[in-house]
Write a structure and sequence with these properties.
With about 150 residues, the protein is an alpha+beta fold. The protein contains 5 helices and 5 strands; from the N terminus they run H-E-H-E-H-E-H-E-E-H. It has a 3-stranded mixed sheet with strand order 2-5-4. The chain has a two-stranded antiparallel sheet with strand order 1-3. It is flat and about 110 Å long. The model has no long low-confidence stretch (mean pLDDT about 80).
Amino acid sequence: MKKILYCGNLDWLQKGFRIMRITIFLCLISVVQIFAIPSLGQVKLDLKMKNTSIEELLQEMEENTNFRFFYQSKDLKDKKIINIEFKQKTVHEILDEVLPKYQLKYEVFDNYIAIKSKQDVINKQNPDQEQKSISGKVTDSSGIPLP
């Protein structure tokens, strides 16, 4: 005698497959959205400013991007008024073009940018070190030169 297995209504199986298809579809959409978001350095800016200072330029860039700028006021205080016009330039391209004219450089830490004077960087690398030559011979306690 053969036994016939009867599973009953298969609606639960169809519902399970439907839920899996919807879940996979939503995951794929999420992945596509993640790749569509530009990274911080790739944001393009259009800036046109007349008779502005570097501080005002940095404030405008902060408002239009996720970057935050840090600088010492003394480094930017004596810099003259500038006129700028940039179309579809990244933050790095703008800073590379503007800052070297004023003996400034920048360093990026995640979404923070530190503006520094090139003179400060040079002073920190060589803090009043004088080059002195030292000559002589090294001996042990009995006065015999060491190899």
